[in-house]
């Protein structure tokens, strides 16, 4: 799956939690207010905007909450949008040890964020590793997911099947095998990881956020959770997803090939919508920002609009 130290110039932008609590809300690039949720002693940073049903948005690698900048303004007109920094990233805590990046910890962070806002369930939106966390969260905590939106991360059953049987997907996943090697985090750096951000101003924000992040923590997502060779299909079925699901997949994704989306419906006991977007790559929420935003907004509000 594509699928951090603070520079001196940026140090003045860092606001301690104490200052935050004493001085009132701090805006996140005009998109919302900063805050923190506690997940078993790990601080999870978020930016929130709007009022209404809770929507938790989860980024992937190498990314941070700002990944949703194109979707937040529209969605926050009808929902309470909460875009998080996953653990290891940007302003969230960065615990050491591979065990702190297992899927149980990552889904536990989502649960903590929902509970932080006093809600029993939420709409969950995830891209890349955020998509993997979202799929798993919906399977582990079905009672806490109202609707599920996944961007460019096939269901884990489809990924397992393609890794085991499709040489093209196995080859496309070579980068993940490299990340699983000892000390792989030493071979990556923030500027290198921001390669995919086309907008110059946005790229500067990404480099700044990635410099605040933990390279080792980010790579630990792959060490702890990505399948390792020899690839095999799982012997036990995945729990069925009980809520309505929308999957959006950019067809030009070079690392997560679209065939893994085949038969996703077999793992969902509810409505399932699959949209594929030709010409869009892995970061579909940027490559086709307006289309993705409109699709999510209308899909979430379909009962209201019909």
The name of the CATH architecture is 3-Layer(aba) Sandwich
Sum up the overall morphology in one term.
globular
What ranges have pLDDT less than 50 throughout 5 or more consecutive residues? 2-25
Sheet of most strands:
8 strands, mixed
Report the mean per-residue pLDDT as an integer. 92
Strand content: 15-25%
Compute the CA-based radius of gyration.
Answer: 18 Å
Tally of discrete structural domains:
1
Tell me the structural class.
alpha/beta
Helix count, DSSP H or I runs of 4 or more residues: 13
| CATH homologous superfamily assignment | Alpha/Beta hydrolase fold, catalytic domain
Q: What proportion of the residues is helical, as a percent range?
A: 25-40%
What is the fold named in CATH at topology level?
Rossmann fold
First-last Cα distance: 36 Å
CATH class: Alpha Beta
Notes on the protein architecture:
Helix 2 (72-75) links the parallel strand 3 and strand 4 (80-84). Helices cover 35% and strands 16% of the residues. It has one domain: Alpha/Beta hydrolase fold, catalytic domain (Rossmann fold, 3-Layer(aba) Sandwich), CATH 3.40.50. An 8-stranded mixed beta sheet has the order 1-2-4-3-5-6-7-8, with helices on both faces. Helix 3 (103-116) crosses helix 4 (129-140). It has 13 helices and 8 strands. The chain has 306 residues and is an alpha/beta fold.
Topology:
Blueprint: H1 17-23, E1 33-39, E2 42-49, E3 54-58, H2 72-75, E4 80-84, H3 103-116, E5 122-127, H4 129-140, E6 145-151, H5 156-165, H6 167-172, H7 174-179, H8 190-193, H9 200-212, H10 215-225, E7 245-250, E8 272-277, H11 284-287, H12 289-300, H13 302-305
Parallel strand pairs: 3-4, 3-5, 5-6, 6-7, 7-8
Antiparallel strand pairs: 1-2, 2-4
């Amino acid at each position: 799956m594509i699928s951090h130290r603070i520079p001196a110039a940026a140090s003045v932008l860092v606001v301690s939690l104490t200052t935050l609590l004493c001085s009132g809300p701090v805006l996140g690039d005009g998109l919302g207010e900063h805050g923190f949720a506690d997940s078993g002693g790990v601080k999870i940073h978020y930016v929130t905007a709007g009022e209404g049903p809770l929507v938790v948005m989860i980024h992937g690698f190498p990314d941070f909450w700002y990944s949703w900048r194109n979707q937040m303004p529209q969605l926050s007109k009808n929902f309470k949008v909460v875009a998080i920094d996953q653990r290891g990233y940007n302003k969230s805590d960065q615990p050491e040890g591979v065990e702190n990046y297992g899927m149980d910890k990552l889904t536990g962070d989502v649960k903590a964020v929902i509970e932080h806002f006093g809600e029993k369930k939420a709409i969950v939106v995830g891209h890349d590793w955020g998509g993997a966390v979202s799929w798993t969260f919906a399977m582990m905590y079905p009672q806490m997911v109202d609707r599920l939106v996944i961007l460019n991360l096939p269901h884990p059953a489809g990924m397992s099947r393609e890794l085991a049987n499709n040489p093209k997907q196995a080859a496309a996943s070579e980068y993940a095998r490299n990340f699983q090697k000892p000390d792989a985090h030493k071979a990556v750096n923030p500027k290198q990881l921001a390669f995919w951000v086309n907008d110059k101003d946005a790229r500067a924000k990404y480099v700044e956020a990635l410099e605040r992040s933990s390279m080792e923590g980010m790579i630990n997502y792959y060490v702890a959770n990505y399948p390792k060779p020899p690839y095999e299909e799982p012997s036990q079925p995945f729990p069925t997803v009980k809520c309505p699901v929308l999957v959006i997949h950019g067809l030009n994704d070079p690392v997560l090939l679209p065939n893994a989306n085949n038969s996703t419906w077999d793992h969902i006991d509810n409505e399932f919508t699959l949209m594929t977007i030709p010409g869009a790559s892995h970061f579909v929420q940027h490559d086709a920002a307006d289309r993705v935003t409109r699709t999510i907004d209308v899909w979430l509000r379909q009962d209201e609009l019909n």
